[in-house]
Amino acid sequence: MQPRTVALEVVDSERYGMHDDNDWASVTPLGHGFVKVGDGEDDFYAISMYHQIHCLNGFRKVLNGHRNDSRAEHDAMHNLHCLSYMRQMVLCNADLALEPAFLAKNTDGRLTQAAYGVGVTHQCRDWEQVRSFAEENFQLWKGGTTGFAASEISAQLLG
Predict the structure, then answer these.
(1) DSSP letter, residue 104
(2) Distance separating alpha carbons of residues 61 and 85, to the nearest angstrom
(3) DSSP annotation of 37
(4) Which residues contact 124 (CB under 8 A, 6 or more apart)?
(5) What is the C-alpha separation between 128 and 134, in angstroms, rounded?
(6) What pLDDT, in 10s, does the model give residues 130-152?
(7) pTM of the full predicted structure?
Protein backbone atom coordinates (compact mmCIF):
# COMPACT_ATOMS: atom_id res chain seq x y z
CA MET A 1 0.00 0.00 0.00
CA GLN A 2 1.23 3.42 -0.91
CA PRO A 3 -1.07 5.96 0.72
CA ARG A 4 -2.80 8.25 -1.75
CA THR A 5 -2.02 11.93 -1.71
CA VAL A 6 -5.01 13.91 -0.50
CA ALA A 7 -5.74 17.56 0.20
CA LEU A 8 -6.55 18.73 3.71
CA GLU A 9 -7.91 22.22 4.30
CA VAL A 10 -7.33 23.39 7.85
CA VAL A 11 -10.63 24.34 9.51
CA ASP A 12 -11.65 25.34 12.99
CA SER A 13 -13.63 22.46 14.39
CA GLU A 14 -15.62 21.80 17.50
CA ARG A 15 -14.50 18.17 17.35
CA TYR A 16 -11.24 17.02 18.94
CA GLY A 17 -11.42 19.71 21.59
CA MET A 18 -9.76 19.78 24.96
CA HIS A 19 -12.46 17.71 26.67
CA ASP A 20 -13.50 15.39 23.82
CA ASP A 21 -12.09 12.07 25.01
CA ASN A 22 -14.33 10.05 22.67
CA ASP A 23 -13.33 12.05 19.59
CA TRP A 24 -9.64 11.61 20.39
CA ALA A 25 -10.13 7.88 21.04
CA SER A 26 -11.91 7.49 17.70
CA VAL A 27 -8.77 8.47 15.76
CA THR A 28 -6.85 5.43 17.01
CA PRO A 29 -7.54 2.16 15.16
CA LEU A 30 -7.98 -1.32 16.54
CA GLY A 31 -4.57 -2.43 17.78
CA HIS A 32 -3.69 1.19 18.65
CA GLY A 33 -1.60 1.61 15.49
CA PHE A 34 0.74 -1.30 16.23
CA VAL A 35 1.43 -3.66 13.36
CA LYS A 36 3.05 -7.08 13.26
CA VAL A 37 5.74 -7.52 10.66
CA GLY A 38 6.88 -11.12 10.23
CA ASP A 39 6.49 -14.24 12.34
CA GLY A 40 8.62 -13.51 15.43
CA GLU A 41 7.11 -12.71 18.80
CA ASP A 42 8.93 -9.37 18.88
CA ASP A 43 8.09 -8.28 15.33
CA PHE A 44 5.74 -5.46 16.40
CA TYR A 45 6.10 -1.86 15.34
CA ALA A 46 4.14 1.35 15.90
CA ILE A 47 3.04 3.39 12.91
CA SER A 48 4.55 6.81 13.58
CA MET A 49 1.33 8.69 12.83
CA TYR A 50 -0.35 6.93 15.76
CA HIS A 51 2.62 7.55 18.04
CA GLN A 52 2.23 11.24 17.16
CA ILE A 53 -1.52 11.18 17.91
CA HIS A 54 -0.73 9.48 21.23
CA CYS A 55 1.67 12.31 22.12
CA LEU A 56 -0.79 15.04 21.13
CA ASN A 57 -3.50 13.35 23.18
CA GLY A 58 -1.11 13.22 26.14
CA PHE A 59 -0.45 16.97 25.83
CA ARG A 60 -4.21 17.54 25.72
CA LYS A 61 -4.66 15.58 28.94
CA VAL A 62 -1.88 17.52 30.70
CA LEU A 63 -3.43 20.82 29.61
CA ASN A 64 -6.75 19.58 31.04
CA GLY A 65 -5.09 19.03 34.41
CA HIS A 66 -5.14 15.22 34.18
CA ARG A 67 -2.52 13.82 36.49
CA ASN A 68 -1.73 10.66 38.33
CA ASP A 69 0.47 11.47 41.33
CA SER A 70 1.71 7.88 41.54
CA ARG A 71 3.12 8.24 38.00
CA ALA A 72 4.25 11.89 38.13
CA GLU A 73 7.92 11.18 37.35
CA HIS A 74 7.06 8.75 34.56
CA ASP A 75 4.51 11.18 33.08
CA ALA A 76 7.00 14.07 33.16
CA MET A 77 9.63 12.00 31.33
CA HIS A 78 7.02 10.76 28.87
CA ASN A 79 5.91 14.32 28.08
CA LEU A 80 9.52 15.40 27.51
CA HIS A 81 9.97 12.43 25.16
CA CYS A 82 6.79 13.39 23.29
CA LEU A 83 7.80 17.04 23.01
CA SER A 84 11.15 16.08 21.49
CA TYR A 85 9.55 13.44 19.28
CA MET A 86 6.88 15.82 17.94
CA ARG A 87 9.47 18.50 17.19
CA GLN A 88 11.41 15.98 15.14
CA MET A 89 8.30 14.73 13.34
CA VAL A 90 7.30 18.28 12.35
CA LEU A 91 10.80 18.81 10.97
CA CYS A 92 10.72 15.43 9.23
CA ASN A 93 7.47 16.23 7.45
CA ALA A 94 8.63 19.75 6.50
CA ASP A 95 5.19 20.94 5.33
CA LEU A 96 5.81 23.71 2.79
CA ALA A 97 2.25 25.06 2.63
CA LEU A 98 2.24 28.85 2.82
CA GLU A 99 0.00 30.34 5.50
CA PRO A 100 -1.06 34.00 5.18
CA ALA A 101 0.62 36.16 7.81
CA PHE A 102 -0.79 39.17 9.63
CA LEU A 103 0.23 41.58 12.36
CA ALA A 104 -1.07 40.89 15.85
CA LYS A 105 -0.45 42.44 19.23
CA ASN A 106 1.47 40.21 21.60
CA THR A 107 0.97 40.21 25.37
CA ASP A 108 3.10 43.32 25.91
CA GLY A 109 1.22 45.27 23.22
CA ARG A 110 3.89 45.14 20.52
CA LEU A 111 2.97 44.16 16.97
CA THR A 112 4.41 40.89 15.75
CA GLN A 113 4.00 38.62 12.73
CA ALA A 114 1.48 35.82 13.24
CA ALA A 115 -0.21 33.10 11.18
CA TYR A 116 -3.47 31.28 11.83
CA GLY A 117 -3.42 28.58 9.15
CA VAL A 118 -7.20 28.18 8.85
CA GLY A 119 -8.32 27.91 5.22
CA VAL A 120 -4.92 26.76 3.99
CA THR A 121 -4.86 23.52 1.99
CA HIS A 122 -2.07 21.04 2.70
CA GLN A 123 -0.92 18.03 0.68
CA CYS A 124 -1.13 14.94 2.89
CA ARG A 125 -1.07 11.16 2.88
CA ASP A 126 -4.49 9.55 3.19
CA TRP A 127 -4.65 8.76 6.90
CA GLU A 128 -7.88 6.78 6.46
CA GLN A 129 -6.04 4.41 4.12
CA VAL A 130 -3.27 4.00 6.71
CA ARG A 131 -5.94 3.30 9.37
CA SER A 132 -7.49 0.58 7.18
CA PHE A 133 -4.09 -1.01 6.71
CA ALA A 134 -3.41 -0.95 10.47
CA GLU A 135 -6.78 -2.51 11.28
CA GLU A 136 -6.38 -5.24 8.64
CA ASN A 137 -2.95 -6.04 10.06
CA PHE A 138 -4.41 -6.15 13.60
CA GLN A 139 -7.07 -8.64 12.50
CA LEU A 140 -4.30 -10.91 11.16
CA TRP A 141 -2.17 -10.98 14.31
CA LYS A 142 -5.04 -10.75 16.78
CA GLY A 143 -6.30 -14.08 15.48
CA GLY A 144 -2.89 -15.70 15.86
CA THR A 145 -1.95 -15.58 12.21
CA THR A 146 1.25 -13.91 11.15
CA GLY A 147 1.52 -10.32 10.05
CA PHE A 148 3.02 -8.90 6.90
CA ALA A 149 6.61 -9.59 5.95
CA ALA A 150 8.97 -6.68 6.63
CA SER A 151 9.49 -6.08 2.91
CA GLU A 152 5.73 -6.10 2.37
CA ILE A 153 5.02 -3.47 5.01
CA SER A 154 7.83 -1.26 3.74
CA ALA A 155 6.51 -1.51 0.21
CA GLN A 156 2.95 -0.93 1.35
CA LEU A 157 3.49 1.93 3.77
CA LEU A 158 6.59 3.60 2.43
CA GLY A 159 5.93 3.16 -1.25
Answers:
(1) E
(2) 17
(3) B
(4) 5, 6, 7, 8
(5) 10
(6) 999 999 999 988 876 555 554 44
(7) 0.81
